[in-house]
Amino acid sequence: MIKLYQSKLLSRFSQIKHFFSSRIGGFSTGEFAQANMSLKSGDSHALANRRLLARQLDVDLDRFVFLKQTHSNNFYVVTEQDAGKGAFEYQSAIDNVDALITTRKNLMLIVTTADCVPILVFDSEKNIIAAIHSGWRGTVKKILARVLGFMFKNYGSRPNDVYLAIGPSIGVCCYEVGHDVEQQVIAAFGHDKFLDYRDGKIFFDLWQANAAQALNFGIPQENIDILGLCTLCHNDKFYSARSGDRGRQLSGIMLI
Ligand SMILES: [Zn+2]
Predict the structure, then answer these.
(1) pLDDT bracket for residue 160 (50, 70, 90)
(2) CATH number at residue 109
(3) How far is C-alpha 149 from the geometric centre of its chain's CA atoms?
(4) What is the whole-number distance in angstroms between the Cα of residue 115 and the centre of ligand 1?
(5) How far is CA 57 from the centre of its chain?
(6) Which structural domain range is residue 28 located in?
(7) For residue 249, is it within any domain?
(8) How many domains does the chain have?
(9) 3-class SS at 185?
């Protein structure tokens, strides 16, 4: 069994299934141990781990939809014909996109991370879901705001109906950045409130910088669940790129 995490907030809704995977359980050994999901990592057990995950979730792997993430702010609306893309081999994943949106049932929207922020979104009235990959580049490019803007404009989402979970990713406890990132954060947000200056170093709060994008749309604070799990602090439970891991965990959401 692969150890999975969930958002208490999203778990309230019977219209969706969602998960955040960990590195615990699964078949991978050595540096990839144990539940690596990345097919391009060179780990021969990654596909078996995905099959195990799919069985645990009781969702066929050919209903999963994967991305070739590029730290862009591009999103893509998933349709039935996208089912299974990237699920069994990296090559067929949807290219140059960092967020997936759909109103269709039985499509498991997936993002792949190790330190970057996975964000799962659900509109409980319009029945829209999104999965977003937001590292520091996606955060300063405001990919979450772009996805929410699309949902509000195209589907008529209303702030009180939209719920978000900000999954396991590197926290401000550990995410030291350089002056180049510092300058881009200040340029993007117009202030340095998401930067923490301590011990002569600069740390970036990805969780708050993403939550702020939702708050700007009028989404209530209580609709935003920050799991608060730092992938580097909890490197025993999650892959962390900063620690040198080449393994990756998945986050997914599906309308049922
Ligand atoms: Zn940490």
Answers:
(1) very high
(2) 3.60.140.10
(3) 18
(4) 10
(5) 18
(6) 4-170+211-255
(7) yes
(8) 1
(9) helix
